[in-house]
Amino acid sequence: MLTPGWSSDAITHQGHVRSENQDAYLSDDENQLWLVADGMGGGKGGALASRMLRQTFENICLEEELTQRVNQLEQLVFNANLKIYHYARESFCGDYMGTTLVLLNRWHNLGILIWAGDSRCYGQDATRLQCLTWDHNQATELMKLGQMSEQEMRQLPKSHAITRAVGLHPDLCLEFQLLDMANWRLFLLCSDGIYGEVSQALMFNCFAANGSMKHKTALLRDKVLQAGAHDNLTLICIYPDQFAKTAVVKHSLTQWNRQLEKLQLDYYLAGISRDTLVTQRQQLLSSIADNLSWNPTREMNSEQTQALCQVSELKRSKNDPVYLFFIATILIILFIFMTTIFIVTAAR
After folding, report:
1. Whole-angstrom Cα distance, residue 132 to residue 118?
2. pLDDT digit string, tens, across residues 5-32
3. Which of 37, 197, 280, 339 is most buried, taking the most CB atoms under 10 A from its CB?
4. What is the sign of the dihedral through the CA atoms of 50, 56, 62 and 66?
5. Is 222 in a helix, a strand, or coil?
6. How far is the C-alpha of 63 from the C-alpha of 176, rounded, in Å?
7. 274-293 vs 66-91: helix axis angle to the nearest 10?
């Protein structure tokens, strides 16, 4: 089954309170690459940091193989991280500047989701809107480590302090996840200026309403502005040109993501070295790519699809009763003809 291409619509706004818009975004439908970066308002140069991160991904040529693609995307973020970090040290007398990141890139039937900080990715289907990322803050990380329950975390006062961002430190640990893109009707990448102002239910209702995607994104923007818009707000809505089934098995995808998260967490906690992380992750990604490559429902080009249809039609025809009757009739006629020739020859 062919996997459709995905298109996007985006909005960004300064809001009613901030003196400048420190958000940046990239909607590259050609490369099937989308990102939102939220410059850190408490640091100097937040707007510059988010723009520097966005510029790193402009006009790039993406690797074809899954492992190389993930390594490439990660390295691009690392390059931006060091560039922002050193720029701040040289230009701001040692003060910091930084930006969050949430990035989605389509690779065949999979979405590669990468993030750092509290900008989020949501997936929406016919019945729900689900947050697919988790915020990098102290409370959430304690919950991930099993030192706090999810209920206890929800009872804590809301904190905007994040533990990871691009440009804050020379070393950066990113978060990775693989998505079955055809399992969702659309994806939303957004800064906290969106979900911090309106509920998840309202976000769902905006995109479940009738109308074009441009109308729906504009509707959500208006709802955020009506709610006060205390921060910059940016959102990219990513949706398929047509819906199609995918080859990804949900159980397998869950297992892969658990392994990816554990590897990243072990590295973040200094449980494993960077070399070990890269080696084990490459082995996992290679296994995933191999697992998908033999699946007969994987993405195919038009020539492959036509060839597969021809083979399927041939197999179907050979099992058809009419086809079998025709073959049997031919064989009987040949048998009678050969028998007649044998009798005539023997009589002579």
Report:
1. 12
2. 899 999 999 999 999 999 999 999 999 9
3. 37
4. negative
5. helix
6. 17
7. 150
Virtual torsion, Cα 195, 200, 206, 210, nearest 10 deg = 150
Helical residues (DSSP H) of the chain, grouped into ranges: 46-56, 66-91, 138-144, 150-155, 192-195, 200-208, 213-226, 250-268, 274-293, 302-318, 321-347
Residue 13 near residue 235 (C-beta atoms within 8 A): no
CB-based contacts of 265, cutoff 8 Å, min separation 6: 144, 271
pLDDT at 295: 47
Taken in order 139, 141, 146, 147, the sign of the CA dihedral is negative
Distance CA 167, CA 87 (A): 9
Residue 233 CB neighbour total at 10 angstroms: 29
Question: What gap in Å lies between CA 136 and CA 153, rounded to an integer?
Answer: 13
Mean pLDDT of the chain: 85
Measure the CA dihedral 193/195/198/204, to 10°. Answer: 140
**What six digits make up the tokens of 134?**
């988790």
pLDDT tens for each residue of 183-210: 899 999 999 999 999 999 999 999 999 9
Token duo for residue 219: 């509707």
Quote the CA–CA distance of 297 and 303 in Å, as a whole number.
15
Separation CA 133–CA 334 (nearest Å): 70
Q: pLDDT at residue 220 above 50? A: yes
DSSP for residue 325:
H
Q: How confident is the model at residue 310, as a pLDDT?
A: 47
Taking the CB of residue 346, how many other CB atoms lie within 10 A of it? 7
327 pLDDT more than 80: no
Q: What are phi and psi of 276, to 5 degrees?
A: -65, -40
Taking only the tens place, the pLDDT of each residue in 238-295 is 999 865 555 566 778 899 999 999 999 999 989 899 999 999 999 999 999 988 864 4
Return the pLDDT at 4: 59
Residues 6+ apart with CB under 8 A from 134: 140, 144, 175
Which amino acid, residue 157?
P
Among 98, 102, 104, residue whose Cα is nearest residue 195: 102
